[in-house]
Write a structure and sequence with these properties.
Layout lengths: L14 H22 L3 H18 L1 H12 L3 H39 L8 E10 L7 E4 L12 E3 L4 E8 L4 E5 L6 E6 L5 E6 L6 E7 L9 E4 L11 E9 L6 E8 L8 E6 L14 H12 L2 H60 L11
Antiparallel strand pairs: 1-2, 1-12, 2-5, 3-4, 3-12, 4-5, 6-7, 6-9, 7-8, 8-11, 9-10, 10-11
């Protein structure tokens, strides 16, 4: 009969081993997703699957908001109606002026043979909820890849820039607000045309205009608009207004504090822009002369010394040519002097040979008088 221990006494992997296994698995998933984006598809599938649950969870809020809208008094509606009429008149005047300016701009561009700027398409969207991370300034809108939202598209409202799309799901998209500490927008000052880059701050309530020299003409109240040089934001969108300028003698750049023009946290209805920039791509950068010379020396190794010797030889050749040209004139005078040494050497050899023969003769042994063969 096979015996098995009761469930209470069954032994398996220890708690420490399971802890180590799951920690290693979590680290592997984090590293693979951060470096190779391996979980993007899984994240998109989960986002699409949880979308109905999110909509169901937001039903009480929508019902409450609808009841609050119905409770608005008629006096508030009349005042808002009067304001909208006044604003409508102002916008109609601005529209007429803009039409005249657009016609004049078209004529001038045709006269100067400049290319027309591409039209910017927009897609309306509504903020659904904030993200879970309290240390970031991000919201989620109810438009995704199926509605044509693209990664990196700018997001605006009627007042100015709100943020930028940083992550796209099939039915939703994540928008990083303008005040986020990792968000940067190229801007320029309307009054002076000075270009710089504006960043969010860790607190998320102000903006920091960086890389502004102390000598730059920046004043409190200056308006900042997008420069359009990055190819992401259309030029001329209102971004912020300067509220404080601190210039210190010990730093090269001034500290410029700005406030966003648009209500970044209070906006509900937004516009997602699809901006197409027709500017040709940036040309490839060519290495400068110093870098090219260093690369050539690194490749050749010891050849620079040889090239230097060759240069010295080439410099010495012009000095040798006059000497070579002078050789033909010296030949007639050198031939007689070369024959005399040759004859002298032959005479000396003959005398040495005769002396050697005489010495051999004197060295032969002489016969003794009493010796018989």
């Amino acid at each position: 009969m096979e015996y098995s221990p009761p469930p209470l006494f069954k032994q398996g992997p220890s708690a420490l081993a399971r802890l180590v296994f799951f920690v290693v698995l979590a680290l592997a998933l984090l590293i693979s997703d951060a470096r190779f984006k391996t979980l993007e598809i899984v994240r998109g599938v989960l986002g699409a699957g949880l979308y109905p649950l999110q909509r169901a969870a937001l039903v009480p809020r929508d019902v409450f908001m609808g009841a609050a809208d119905l409770a608005v008094t008629s006096a508030t509606l009349r005042s808002e109606n009067d304001k909208l009429r006044t604003k409508d008149l102002q916008l109609s005047q601005q529209a007429n002026t803009a039409a005249e300016l657009a016609a004049e701009n078209t004529h001038l561009r045709a006269l100067l043979q400049l290319s027309q700027r591409s039209a910017t398409q927009s897609l309306p969207a509504e903020v659904q909820y904030d993200t879970r991370d309290p240390f970031t300034q991000k919201v989620v809108i109810g438009r995704g890849a199926q509605q044509g939202v693209q990664d990196g598209s700018p997001v605006v409202n009627e007042d100015g820039v709100i943020g930028q799309v940083t992550r796209v799901f099939p039915l939703q998209a994540e928008v990083t607000l303008l005040t986020d500490k990792d968000q940067a927008v190229p801007v320029q000052i309307v009054r002076t045309g000075l270009r710089s880059v504006i960043y969010g701050t860790p607190k998320g309530d102000t903006l920091d205009l960086r890389f502004v020299p102390i000598s730059a003409d920046v004043q409190t109240g200056d308006e900042l608009v997008t420069s359009g040089l990055d190819g992401v934001y259309p030029p001329g969108l209102p971004v912020a207004k300067v509220v404080r300028v601190d210039k210190q003698a010990d730093t090269a750049f001034a500290r410029v504090i700005c406030l966003p023009v648009a209500p970044v946290r209070g906006a509900r209805q937004l516009l997602v822009l699809h901006y197409l920039n027709n500017v040709p791509p940036r040309p490839a950068e060519e290495p400068d002369a110093a870098t090219a010379a260093k690369d050539a020396k690194a490749k050749k190794g010891g050849k620079p010394a040889d090239s230097k010797a060759a240069t010295d030889k080439a410099a010495a050749k012009p000095a040798e040519k006059p000497a070579a040209a002078a050789k033909p004139a010296e030949k007639p005078s050198t031939k007689p002097t070369e024959k005399a040494p040759a004859k002298t050497a032959a005479t000396e050899k003959k005398a040495v040979a005769e002396k050697k023969a005489a010495a051999d003769r004197s060295a032969k042994p002489q016969a003794t008088p009493g010796a018989q063969p």
